[in-house]
Amino acid sequence: MIEATVQWSALTVDSMSEPKYAKSWRQLNDHVFVELETGQPSMGLLVTCGVPGAAAGQEAGLPLQMSVTDPGLAVEQRQALLSAFARSLVDELSCIGEPVIPAQLLR
Q1: Which of 3, 34, 70, 89 is the most exposed place for a label (fewest CB within 10 A)?
Q2: Quick one: which of 92, 84, 89, 44 has its CA closest to 68?
Q3: How far apart (Å, rounded) are the C-alpha atoms in residues 77 and 82?
Q4: What string of DSSP letters covers 18-53?
Q5: What is the DSSP string of 48-101?
Q6: Which is it for strands 32-35 and 42-47: parallel, antiparallel or unpaired?
Q7: Of 28, 16, 7, 24, nearest to 60 (Cα)?
Q8: Are 26 and 47 in contact (CB under 8 A)?
Q9: 64-69 and 25-27 as β-strands: parallel, antiparallel, unpaired?
Q10: Are the beta carbons of 47 and 31 closer than 8 angstroms?
Q11: Element (H or E) spanning 8, and its range?
Q12: CA 72 from chain center: how many Å?
């Protein structure tokens, strides 16, 4: 069973440079961070998505956190699914700043 979630993150973009998060998250570009493989059947993304009408700075202070979980999927499949899920959400929400979600999340 595939489970996909999205929520406003308790993490901030600034917190990604703190050592405890820098070990488990990698910055992909100015707007996207990927959670490094933990050996668990899940993968996470943090995306700066400014929502039209929100307070200034919302995209950095409350980025979107998305994840995909499925023990039956290989890492590459989870990666492709999460990337497609994130791109679809960014388009639907009309994120200000137009974050670019790479198709290849882990290298």
Answers
A1: 3
A2: 44
A3: 9
A4: SHHHHTTEEE-SSSEEEEPP-SSSEEEEEE--BPTT
A5: --BPTTSPTTHHHHS-EEEEEE-TTS-HHHHHHHHHHHHHHHHHHHT-BT----
A6: antiparallel
A7: 16
A8: no
A9: unpaired
A10: yes
A11: strand 3-8
A12: 21
Q: Which amino acid is at 81?
A: L
Residuewise pLDDT in 10s, the chain (107 residues):
899 999 999 898 889 989 998 889 999 999 999 998 778 899 999 999 888 887 777 766 778 999 999 999 988 899 999 999 999 999 999 898 889 999 989 76
Do residues 82 and 70 make contact, with C-beta atoms less than 8 angstroms apart?
no
Which residues, in sequence order, are bridge partners of residue 63? none
What is the C-alpha separation between 12 and 70, in angstroms, rounded? Answer: 26
27 touches 12 (CB < 8 A): no
Both tokens assigned to 20: 């405890």
**Span between the terminal Cα atoms of the chain, in Å:** 26
The pTM is what? 0.89
